[in-house]
Design a protein that fits this description.
The chain has helices spanning about 5-15, 25-40, 45-85. It is mainly α. The termini are far apart.
Length: about 90
């Protein structure tokens, strides 16, 4: 995984799991990282295109986070079934 994507995923995780008082800060950090990554990866384009690209990138990052969360949940369930059932 690229360092930029890893950093975005970490920021998204922190945004979703932070205490309520840190929510606005975590949201802003995630948005800034996303915009920086897109700006570095894509050539200059119209504002409407940027909006579409950012929306697609957010969806992609959120899907990756959801897949990871499902994997983690499945691993916990398998562990419980294997070691905690009587």
């Amino acid at each position: 995984m690229s360092p930029e994507l890893e950093q975005l995923l970490r920021a998204l995780y922190e945004k979703r799991t932070c205490p309520p008082e840190e929510k606005s800060h975590r949201d802003a950090t995630f948005e800034r990282l996303l915009q920086d990554t897109l700006a570095a990866a894509l050539p200059p384009v119209e504002t409407n295109c940027w909006t579409l690209c950012m929306s697609a990138m957010k969806s992609s990052v959120e899907r990756a986070a959801n897949r990871q969360r499902c994997r983690t949940r499945r691993d916990r369930l398998e562990f419980r079934e294997k070691y905690c059932s009587r």
